[in-house]
Amino acid sequence: MNAIKPPALRAMLAAVTLSAGLIPGRAADDSDAEIKTLREQIRLLDERLHQLEQKQQLKEQEAAAATKAAPRIIASDTGFAITSADGANSLKLRGLVQLDSRTFFADGGIVNNAFVLRRARLFFEGTIGRDFSFQLVPEFGGGSSTGSTVPSILDANLGVTLSKGLQFKIGKFKSPVGHELLQPETSTLFSERSLATNLVPNRDLGIQASGELLKGTVNYAVGVFNGVADGASSTNADFDNDKDVAGRVMASPFRNRVDSPVQGLNLGVSGSFGREKTASGHTSAYRTDGQQVFFSYAASTISDGQAWRLSPQVDYRYGSLGVLGEYVLSTVNVRPSLTGPKAELQNHAWQLAVGYVLTGEKSSYAGLVPATNFDYRQGTWGAFEVAARCANLKIDDAAFPLFASAASNADEATAFGVGLNWYLSKAAIFKFDYYHTSFGFNPAAPRVSTAPVLQQDEKVFITRFQLAF
Is 402 helix (H, G, I), strand (E, B) or coil? Predict the structure, then answer.
């Protein structure tokens, strides 16, 4: 039997009271005592009803307060999150898995075709007290270009936000130099970054200030870091007195001009300056799009002196069109041995990549979001994007033959790539890329390189399935 709520009881009580007033007078033997008793009962019922209404209101207020104070739990294709009711505290879990298939053509019999677990990462991120944040990213896959399967910590940092114009980051994270490198691994046009990214530092330990200025038209980042070689990442400690200063400024002068064809134009420049010593101060290797080594210094070569980089950059987005380009000059001072003569080498590279979304969605540096997800039953296929890229990396001629072998190294690599990206959803993506890389050699090199990888052009087809949430 359903309980009668206070409003209904009050209506019934009013009806009873009205009825009592309308009942015609009984015989003379009806006593006033009976009427008084009835009125008293009605008064007591009214008081009881008032008490029930108060209790009901109190319960509703307590329930509303509990709902307002309860943390929010969110599960979506961007990850899983627990957020406090006021939004000041949060904990978020994201993940990334990239499985590659590499197929090389006319490779001279080199055994290098493989399935590769390129990346397998968990992202633990959160905020504390609204202004403080943290990030911890372990890597469980092949991860590095060396193919190491040893789990490692990619990012571990703390953040402090004072305003949009001033934020601090402390710990291990990407150095603010390479434009393509700073793009999330989930959002790049191609499965592998270009030759130019070989010349920029990867992750480093340090402290950085960053922010937005002039209504978001200028973004900056500048920091002091331990300092790492081209393409390298820092270990968890670096006990020496030599540190690097790295910074980047990116201007979006037309950002606030809505519907302007140049609204998505971004121009920037980045660089680093410091001193490097020992063999770890120079690159361990420069790699092709297929992740094969085409240049490395001699084992006895060490760094000793100033190391600096300069990189002008451009990024342009207009509707479905995306263009990304950068030039990198990397300078390092090296010796052929502990006591050998010192020389300054300048290696430089550039790359230009273009992407176009065939299904009409907007191109974005932060990643494409399909208008509809793939659903075979509903007849929707997600989003499709085509891409093309050219890149070049040139080694300083002075590197040969004292600091690197001309017989087993190329002094130049030029790569062309085309790709098709199929976005089944924001989280699930298929990438199909073909790269062709040709090599140039120092005049002192033999007619046929002693390195099997360099005895023919590299032709590789890479297929990637990516799940990122």
Answer: coil
How much is the pLDDT for 249?
98
Is 80 exceeded by the pLDDT of residue 11? Answer: no
Tracing tokens 């300054």 back to the chain, one arrives at 344
d(CA 244, CA 204): 10
Judged by DSSP in three states, 442 sits in coil
Lowest mean pLDDT among 49-53, 269-273, 294-298, 373-377: 49-53
Q: How far is CA 421 from CA 162, 191, 281, 383, in A?
A: 39, 9, 37, 8
User: Which of 159, 184, 189, 179 lies closest to 249, judged by CA?
Assistant: 179
Q: Which CATH class is domain 71-468?
A: mainly beta
pLDDT value of position 166: 97
Residues 198 and 354 sit within 8 Å (Cβ to Cβ): no
Stretch (H or E) spanning 343 = strand 343-357
Name the one residue in this structure whose structure tokens are 């990024």: 315
Q: Which residues contact 8 (CB under 8 A, 6 or more apart)?
A: none
Between helices 32-69 and 6-22, what is the axis angle to 10°? 160
In the chain, where are the structural domains located?
Answer: 1-17+34-69, 71-468
Are the C-beta atoms of 331 and 305 separated by less than 8 Å? no
Q: pLDDT by residue (tens digit) across 313-353?
A: 999 999 999 999 999 999 999 999 988 899 999 999 999 99
Report how far residue 155's alpha carbon sits from residue 138's, in angstroms, rounded to the nearest whole number: 7
Under a CB-based contact definition with an 8 Å cutoff, are residues 297 and 283 in contact?
yes
The alpha helices in 370-425, defined as continuous H runs, are: none
Instruction: Tell me the backbone φ, ψ of residue 399, rounded to 5 degrees.
Output: -70, -20
What is the rounded distance in angstroms from the CA atom of residue 153 to the CA atom of residue 172? Answer: 9
pLDDT for 457: 97
Q: How would you class 245 by CB atoms within 10 Å of its CB: exposed for 0-12, middle for 13-18, buried for 19 or more?
A: middle
Q: Residue 15 CB: number of other CB atoms within 10 A?
A: 10
Residue 90 CA, distance from chain mean position? 18
Tokens, residue 215: 């209504």
| Residue 382 CB coordination number (10 Å) | 22
pLDDT at 403 over 70: yes
Written in H, E and C, the secondary structure of 211-279 is EEECCCCEEEEEEEECCCCCCCCCCCCCCCCCCEEEEEEEECCCCCCCCCCCCCEEEEEEEEEEEEEEH
The owner of tokens 């009942």 is 23
**The pLDDT value given to residue 22:** 45
- Residue 4 corresponds to which tokens in the numbers above? 């009668």
Residues 139/154, Cβ–Cβ less than 8 Å: yes
Q: Report the percent of the chain where pLDDT is more than 70.
A: 91
